[in-house]
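Researcher: Let's run the pair from yesterday's discussion. Sequence first, then tokens, for each.
Model: Starting with the first of the pair.
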Amino acid sequence: MPEADTGMASEVDAEVAVLIVGGGPVGLTARALLERWGVRALLVEKHVELSPFPRSRLVNVRTMEIYRQLGLAAEITANAFAPEYGRVRFRDTLHGDDFATAAMIGVHAPVPESPAIGVVTSQDRLEPTLLAAADSPVRFGVELIDLVEETESVVAVLVDHRQGRGRETRVRARYVVAADGANSGVRQRLAIDTAGPGALGSFTTVLFDADLDRWRAHQPAGVYFTAHGSFGPLYPEGGWAWFGPTPEDAAHVDWPALVSRALGPGAGVRADVLRVQQWMMNAFVAERFHHGRILLAGDAAHAIPPIGGLGMNTGVADVHNLCWKLAGVLHGWAHPGLLETYGTERHPVAQRTLRQSVANTQLMVQVLNRRRDQLQAGEGASAQVELPWSERYFAQLGLVLGVGYHSAAVLGDDGTPPEPSDSGTDYVPTTRPGHRMPHLWLAHSRSTLDAFGEWFTLLTPDPARWEQQSSTPWPLRVELLPEEHLERCGLRPHGALLVRPDGHLAARWHDRPPSDSVLRNAVTTTTRPTAPGAGR
């Protein structure tokens, strides 16, 4: 990326605090979070409208917790499938019977570890809700074609494809959030390499109409895996999608015939194809998420294969981690070095998520291979396949709810350095610093998670003692923690938990504060870390 050219860069058409590149779920969520935290951003999206394709299908329980915080969970749930669709089914054809099935944990039914429940919904149903969640400007049909770094800002060169031959404008931003997908032009301009398997192959999604309600009504699922590709219902009122490897000579494929064959002999249904999209399944993690004042998020930072529904959800968690830090820096109560902790915290999560997604894909292949072996051995079509995972393993709640951060923005117990931890696929609620604060009921229908927002939160059974320290230049609220939760939180009667705006614990004091300045010192350390190599 070019360095600052003061002659060119000084002439701009507009100035913004944050420029978001990419109008998918991750970019739109970043826009809503920043506005909630008092930062108006400009979002640009090179396509002329929101995506017409369903793409991501699962909003997991952690993402719904974030949308609950934004006040969006009820609307998203109202537009989504009923909970019984939170299930996967395995069949020889869509017309056949199940030979295996599994529930999506945290989607099919509530889990005690969260006040929220995930949903099965199509991305093109989710995005309009996210777009309406903020008033900050959005410009569709506008593509970023160049970036120029300055000392205190970045100048983006944009071209508006709706204006005939394309009119160029220059926008100066304090920071840029690149959420422009797996083929991120921003990442490529920054020459940031990626690591991982890379391109896994070409796939095709076919959207079609067909009268399949008699199957869906009695055996609902979010996804039906078959030997002839996968099927999924699009919307509660109708519509279907098929996806599978792209056939050779795709330009001449009879897609209605292909989908109809995949439905199975005797189905008696003809698919009315509406749209066809070819896409590349990628699997990689960018080598770094932070370059100066430019930060990568979502698929621009990590491309996750779709099995397990982890990709979009990981991107939403990225910006939930990032946006409070950007707000703090822009409002002046956090040091720019805090942004270094974004990559420190999220890069290991992306690597773990990629490994889990690859493992999920291998498990799915095992199921289909076992079925093939059964049929080749002459076992009847009614034979069942034992799934090669435990329910808790496939739930992945350890990865969804149990992520623990280890960075300069996290203190350990009683001010000691934090210890890294990996919860694996099982989730064990903990109040160790760095982890998501567990869900506990503070009052009827009010969770600990509902206490968090555009501020730090101090949870304590002894508010009077700690409120003496709560006069700080940072946004901070003190909340009463009911005594019934003390043992689960590892606290004694005068202890406290300091929770960051993203709901992760910054510090824990088991008992009374050791000094009158301990809270102030903790927030200072969290928001003004001394990270080496700031800016690169």
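Model: Moving on to the second of the pair.
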Amino acid sequence: MSNAKADWDERIAIRSDETRAVPLPDLDPPASVTAVGGVGQVTVDWSPVPGAVGYVILRGPDDSSLEPVDHHSGDLLSVPGPPYVDTTCTAGTTYRYAVASVPEVTVHGRPGASVEATPLVDNGNVPAVRLTVDALAEGTELHRPWVPMVGSERLSQLLCEESSGGREIGAELEQALRRMHDELGVRTVRAHAIFHDDTRVYREVDGVPQYDFEVVDAIYDKLLGIGLRPVVELGFMPRDLASDPARTVFEYGAIISPPKSYERWHDLVRALVAHLVERYGPDEVLGWDFEVWNEANLEVFWSGSKAEWMHLYDVSAAAVKSVDERLAVGGPSSAAAGWVDDLLAHAASTGSPVDFVTTHTYGSPPLDVQASLDRHGFGRARILWTEWGVTPRHFNPINDSVFSGVFLLRGMRSAAGRVDALAYWVASDHFEELGRPPRWLHGGFGLQTIGGLAKPRFHAMSLLSRLGPAELPVAFEGDGGGGLVEAWASRDRDRIAVLVWNLTLDQSKSGGAAELTRDVTLSFPGVDPAWRATATWLAPGTPGDLVTAAAAIGVGDWPTEEQWAELAAHNELQVTPVERDGADLTVTLRMPSAVLVELRPPG
């Protein structure tokens, strides 16, 4: 498995034919750049620039040696907006910081004037942060970008009766998706490979195309029975339609070549869409999204050229719309936020429809691609991040960690109100792109383990789901307040809920960093001191941290039956009372950790 992973890491580089054909604006660097040193960190802030999809932070000992700060995500270095907390620095060392605007992910503009800052040495005293929650404010709608969508292994696995780790794959994948819907309110599922040969949708007999949607029907019947809708990713290529069937990806052999006939590809897409409308009715299918291919800007997923993929998009979009103009189609479903400008510029010139834009990123909050949509005249298109997560790497231990759960909180908070969906990739560790899992805790992408236990990222979503409908303003003071330490405050009729976390994007510190611990005081002026406070923790070593729990009871590659029961007992987050001091209460937040503080009237 390690050899497969190494081979995969080498193959996911951006395509060699990635060329810049779309002119981009020459954006000014941000104004009002500041850099403030704190214990173990420097917080860089700036004024946003119209037209920027993101920003790159540069650092060096002097202006002649500024380089982008790398937070070790394995993906984009750009971030969507201020502030940025640098914890890759060395305490006591003075640096120069500058910020450059990013008009499109493959380039960044010139940096502005640099500013100086020095991260402070830890003197043994825990720095203090103060959060003031305006609980009496009218509040605004609290946006929930995790609700519209989640990712999954290819959905044909719902029908699989084989086992992984002694657990039946199809039954557990179905239960994992059901839990996403029932407990977290997720509405749609996006997955690869509806045209893969295991669904038997297409074959040619004596050169004549034959369609069979029986397996697709079984898949979507099961999904709709859970209460979920599919995001229909149009791919990969059926063997009998492929121009080069030898070009494949994944252990299950998904074919990545262009079609040998774009006309037959059009007819296949049209036949599928027409069948779905006939079977499920137009009112149902009008609520589905049709996404063209997956990550064609990576050579591993598309063996053709960029121009060939743009033609595939045109043909696919035309096929979908030929069934019903109201059906939604979009793309580019790209890695690392690539090809967004390319697709939009192409569609603007050809007249192809783009009802929504899809793209992916890992290790950072999603960029603000609305600027690209506005620039090309697609400002009303929806923005769907159809893959997102803490790392793009399979079998990375960070996927099982508390850090990844707190990272999810930061990303969802950043995305709220500026994207239509942020789909975590994926729901379950029943996921076999590089083969079936070799052990229970294997650094899998899933929010839930084989065996159906919640990982810290699932718990993070559960905490988010407990926020109320009205978002409340929060003001920050202190070392790292509003950057290292963030909060999301809410209210419903008889409860105030504030989710607070401590996180750096720097994955080299995913195991923790004592110097980043903060004593956080939450203040609720105007709230009756008699209201009771409780805390629900997501932190290393507490219930919900499966890595610590597994180590404590000596789990090997797979738990024993007795260990399954012990792990399940340790898998529920605990709610504990917290003492208030008048309008305030104080908690100590290690990095990484999060706490949901809830206030309720007595009684």
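Researcher: Give me one sentence on the second I can quote.
Model: Confidence is low (pLDDT under 50) at residues 1-16.
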